Amino acid sequence: MKFLTVFIYVLLSLFVGSLFLGLALNLIDIKVVVFLFKKYIASNMYYNGAFGVLGGLILLICFRHLQLRLFSVRKEKSITIESAEGKVSITLFAIEDLVKRLLEEKSEISHIRPKIGYTKRGIEAIIRCNLTSEVSLLEFTRDVQEKVKGRLQILLGEDKEVIVVVEIRKVLLPSRKKGDEEEPEVPFRHY
Question: Which of 35, 118, 136, 154 has the most neighbouring CB atoms within 10 Å?
Fold first, then answer.
């Protein structure tokens, strides 16, 4: 279905774009297009029917595409967990807020912007932040990933796969001021 939709959009875009470009550059005369349309398409019942069916098919594909997009967006705004007692639904916004509060304790990062997505593979947490101090990136990001993954697995259950991606957007190290620089030690000064 997705291939057919993309194929029709590409063909229709190429046709309409070429037609408009040809009209703008005076390569195609509008009177010729109207004449051909009246002579071959509007007067022939088979062409008329074929264009009607093609137009209806394009509209149906467009409506189906919109329905899938809107339904998938509505569906993915929360995670539903089923237990013996009933269903529990938690919004992705609540999980993002939990991750943000969890990571605000760390003084090494700032401007934390988590983005939680629910995919077929599991839960994907993308954490965008700025680094504010010099740390070992591998150890620090591993620590953040383990902390977030552990907390989400406790919250949502061990059966959900959690993928944590940490994106460091900026490195904001404090700049040294001229007064903060150490003066060189004079040899044998204290004797």
Answer: 118
What are the sequence ranges of the domains in the chain? 2-75, 91-171
For 163-174, write each residue's pLDDT tens digit.
Answer: 899 998 988 877
Number of C-beta neighbours around residue 17 at 10 A: 10
CATH class of 91-171: alpha beta
**Token pair of 63 as six digits:** 């409506």
* pTM for the whole structure: 0.53
- The closest of 160, 74, 78 to 116, measured between CA atoms, is 78
Write out the two tokens for 137: 């990136």
Give the model confidence (pLDDT) of 83-126 as tens digits.
788 888 888 889 999 999 999 888 888 889 999 888 777 888 99
**pLDDT at residue 25, as a whole number:** 86
CB 135 within 8 A of CB 95: no
- Say if CB 92 and CB 73 are below 8 A apart: no
Weakly modelled stretches of the chain, pLDDT under 70: 1-2, 71-76, 175-184, 186, 188-191
First to last CA, the chain: 87
Q: Please give the Cα distance from 98 to 114 (Å, whole number).
A: 9
